[in-house]
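Q: Study each token:
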Amino acid sequence: MHPPKLAMRYLLFIAGMGGLLYGIDVGIIAGALPYLESTASVAWKLSAQQLSFIVAAVLLGSVLSSLFAGALADWIGRRWAMVAAGALFSLSIPLIALADGYTPLLAGRLLQGISGGLIGVVVPLYLAECLPAAQRGRGAALFQLLLTIGLVGAAVIGLAQAHGVELATQAAASLAPDARAQAVFAARDHAWRSIFWLCLAPGLVFTVGAVALKESPRWLARRGLAAATESSAPPPLETDSLLSRRYVLPFALACLVLACTQATGINSILAYVVTILNQAGLPGATANVADVGLKVLNAVMTVVAVVLVDRKGRKFLLMLGSGGIVLALLAAGLLFQSAESGQRDVRATIAAQVQGDQLHLSVAQLRAMGAGRQLTVAYGYGAFTDVQSRRMDDAALQAISVTRAATIQPDSVIGAFFRGLHMNPFADPAAARAAPLKIERAWISEVPPPAHGWLVALAICVFVASFAVGPGVCVWLALSELMPTRIRSNGMSIALLINQFVSTVIAAVFLPTVGYYGYSTMFFFGAGFTVMYFLTAAFLLPETKGKTLEEVDAYFAGKQAGAPARPLQEVA
């Protein structure tokens, strides 16, 4: 039998591995996306919306698993729910890395998301129920720390592959233009597949390691198999309504905190950071180096949060972090706004190239527009729209080809069913097949200089550091500490569902939005919602530092009963 201290360390190690997988889930696409965009989008004719769906699929999978994660954890136990999460992650890797089309790639990313959603609910729940009050803050901070290390690992893998692509590009420089383009294409295709293959090992470690964990004592107590660790007897049977203020108030507060956390744009910025920095002016592997630096900073600031979370408290760190996020997002938005103000409208010129409801711009035509420039074209057939962008300094520059067949996506089985009921809210393929090609926007812009890119990178550094020291750690504590015992597992599922829904929507609209309206729009949007986050932390959130879960329950129960308002620190 393991000594208690050794068993506790093993528990924290496996729970930390769960955070590592969650970080890989979020961060791995950042390094892979530029190569997916330049290879799979060409070979498989993927639209900007489909690329956004590939990014957002992980978040959508989290939404789906959040619907049943709490019920699953109540049914089979916290330990076996973690085993299931690890197994799904491990299965997703070969499905993605061997994908030969959009559907298996999307399915693999959805599996990763389902795994991440289970981890995001079950691991913080398991930690909250197994750790004493004095260590609960550091336990959740350790989960977040390993999450950031997962982000660092994903960024390092992306950087290594980026250097491999650069070497292949240099080696192909002496080849004929067509042969050079093919060699660079093959190197990029190999790069994004390798990025995913290298993530298989952590999934296997977590899956096998979770099997050896002990079950949560509170889950065993609810099943009448053991007593809870912070109570001498199983919790009393509660008969008041689930709609009573005792449950609704902390549940609504946890949901608001989690929704605001994702409304900062953290997952989308981390997922698209290499693309963002490329657009800001950092070339090739330099953007990957900056990405690694950001992820390392994230991990370092999480260590700072680990030290502070049980000293300064959750409320203070949330206010400090959300305030820094507002300033950082405003700075990044203003930098992009200054760069985007120099765009030159060429819509009429591009529209004149349309023939037979198709648009073809050859590589020679694109290069004639001038080195150091970027062309962006937004177009549509009826309600089906897309955006294509080309940088003239790209060694593997591809022609722009716009056709009806590549733009209009057929109805899915679900879409066809609802369209038959006249209830489908999505675009109608039949109507789009008769619609003419319309060039909605087209502009040429100068690629910003590297100095501008480093300024944007600095703003994102402040954003990441502020998030790590505040919401990054405290959000998991809010999720597990605010929920009353009676509704904790299902309440956490619903709260994480809202969290991932907000994140999914932002990720799904990111590329189309920045294509149409610029990157500054997304940064200003995040800043506005983070102001709401700061006000929530300042005026609505109670301090839960050092309190047992039962004491937190008693605080909200006292508010329901009309007891005199007291700080949570006074509840005993």
